[in-house]
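Take a minute with the sequence and fold tokens given here and flag any structure token that looks odd. Thanks in advance.
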Amino acid sequence: MEISGLDKNKNYIIKTGLTINGEGAHTPGGTFYIEEGRILALASGGHDRLCFKHPNRATTVLNLDHLTALPPLVDCHVHLALDGNVLNAARRNRAHPGEMDRQVSGVMKDILEHGILAVRDGGDRDGIALRYRDKVASGEMEGPVIRSPESALRKTGTYGAFLGPGMAMDKLDETLDRMVAKKVDLVKVIVSGVVSFKEYGRVGPTQYTAGELAAIVEGARARGLPVMAHASGDAAVRLAVEAGVHTVEHGYFTSRESLALMAERNIPWIPTVIPVAARLNKPPEHGGPDRRERLVVEKTVDRQLATISEAASMGVTLGIGTDAGAPGVRHGHGYLEELFLYSRAGLSPAGIISCATINSAGILGLDWGCLEAGRPAVLLLVDGDPRQDIAALAKVKHLFRPLQKGV
């Protein structure tokens, strides 16, 4: 797999095979004319004489017509401070900058090699992802575009100690102002606890009242920040949607009524199935569920897949998020597993591609996902036709992006 930075001071002509637009359209082949880091034109024929605005610049011509071109993948929910393997070891690395550099460098390499060019972090109490966002943006480290909230907002003494230090509501304005000063990209708020693997349908309690959550959303919006809401259980989801959050994360056991409200208010949902389903990959002797727990996990996954199918039919915008870094979910590697789960939910390959590209890019505020003139020159090339078999997205051959920072 090759990652290519496109120099904004050079011109490029890249010939590809099948070209898939994130909005669902496709053409049997095309030629991308790229100038100043953006797509100048996408032609279906051989228009090599197309005039660039700066025709005298050096021009690189690449013939990749045996590969399929589509927009890059986007993961809407990750935890860069965790590696998906040994949770405690990742936590210990916080105190050792060199080890954390090694861990996160490996994580970001895995992300890119799986065709994922942008991620949205779910926060950590030490602001680790925010620091690495800045290192990538400055060119100090190789990695995807990162969106980070620094730490998640939660009430002290409730779920999420690793995600945020805890906040009293009377410190809300002070906390949000501090986040703005650190130039965070969003606010992450933990509305509920997590899904139980022992008792089907049970989730941790909600942390905020409707008034408190509304104050958080209003305060974030006033500062130009979207809100990413961890919410499991229908009560927490409804609370988040009625407060006007930007996205709902997880959303286990969401009702049809809440889905209808999400569709009406155009609030995207990031279902994150794989962190629960991954528990089924381990036998009991290696920390996996016993027979009773396995039945609970299987039933929970099946319920989530049925809800995804229902959400798609109702017009809810679905993004792809893996919760990568959670136990059993490695960065990059878990992405295709999440897509396979969407396939099990009944979504078509074309629908899944839209979720993974244009929907997820839009959730991160990126002008990606649609391969057309004027858009940033961000391209993923794979071997095979993912419209026929979504597994073709695992055969990543090239990833193109502008060389300079500030994609």
About this structure: The chain has eleven helices and 17 strands. The mean pLDDT is 92. The CA atoms of residues 386 and 393 lie 6 Å apart.
